[in-house]
Amino acid sequence: MDALNLVRHLNTLAALISGIVGSHSTHLPKIAAKVPDGSQVESRTKRFSRWINNEKIERDLYFLPFAEALLLSLSIETLVLVIDGSVVGRGCITLMVSVIYKGRALPIAWTVVKGKKGHFPEDAHIDLVQQVKSLVPEGAQVVFLGDGEFDGVNLQETIEDYGWKYVFRTGININIFWEDYELSCGDLAFHLKPGEWIGIPDVLFTNEKYGLVMLICWWREGCEKPIYLVTNMDSVEDAYAYYSKRFRIETFFSDQKSRGFNIHKSHLSDPKRLSRLLIAACLAYIWIVYLGVLCMRDGWNKIIHRKNRCDLSLFQLGLRLLDHFLNEGLPIHVAFQIPH
Fold this sequence. Notes:
Helix 1 packs across helix 10 and helix 6 runs parallel beside helix 7 (153-161). It is built from twelve helices and ten strands. The chain folds into two domains: 1-57; 62-252, Alpha-Beta Complex (Transposase Inhibitor Protein From Tn5, Chain A, domain 1), CATH 3.90.350. Helix content is 41%, strand content 21%.
C-alpha cells in the first residue's frame, strides 16, 4: 500500500473512532452525523462504508500494533488474558481475547463468524490464542482465563507449551482420574457447604487423561451451587482469585453494547465487515479508558464527578472527561496505551 492511501485510510479510521464515541453507536449514518468535515452526511457514510468494505484494511496493520504496545505497557505486572464470545451485528458472533486492567477488559484480538449464540470450535480458540501469543512481550508472565466453553485439553496443552498459567471453568459431568479413582467433577461437591472449597492436585482430566492438572470445586457464599475449575496453578486461592477476574470481560461487552457503542445494533451482517468495524470500536474503547485513567491520575475526577469518592468506571469517567474537554474548549488527549 502506498503512503498516500495509508494516510487516507488512517484519517478515515480516526474519523470512525471519533464518530463512534460521539454518537455512542456503530451504525454508519449515526457515526457520520458526528464527524464534521465539511461534506454531507451521506457522503461521509459512503466513505465509511468503502473503508469497511475494503479488503486491504487488515487488523494486522490497523489494530495489532496498538494491541502490542498496550500489552508491553501492562507487562510490568502479570498479564491476565480472558477469552469469551458475544453477539455482534446482525446474525454474527465474535470470539475475543482481552487483557484485564483495573476492572475493565481491553480488547487485544478477535475473530467474527456467522452465527447466533453458541460455542466456537476448539480450533478457533487455539488459532486466536496463537495470534495473541505473537503480541505478548518476551518473558511476560501470563494467566489465561475462560469459562466452560474453553476447557478443551488441546487449548490447555497449547497454553502450557507457552509457559503460561491458566484457569478454566469446567462441567459438573467431566470425568477425572485421581490416584486409583475415577469420578466426575460433581462428586467433589457431595460433602461441601457454601463457603467451602476443595482442590485436588495431580488429576488426569477427561477420558483423554490430560494432565497432570488441579481440579477445584468452589462453593461461594450466596451461590446456589459450586463451580468447577481446571488449572495448572499450584494454589487453589490464587487460581480462584484470578478466575474471579474473568467476569471483567462482561463489562467490556456491556460497554460496547448498551452502556456504550451499541455494537450489537450495528446493521452489518458480514463477518469481515464487522471485524473491520471492530477495529474502530475497540480503539475507541481503549481511547476512552485511557481518558478515564488520565482523569484519575490528574485529578479531573474531582472536577467532573465527586471530590470525596468515585463510583464510576474508567470507561464512564473517560466519556465524562471528553465531554468536559469539549464543553470547556480544552485540548483533547488521544492515546491508545495506558499512562503510568
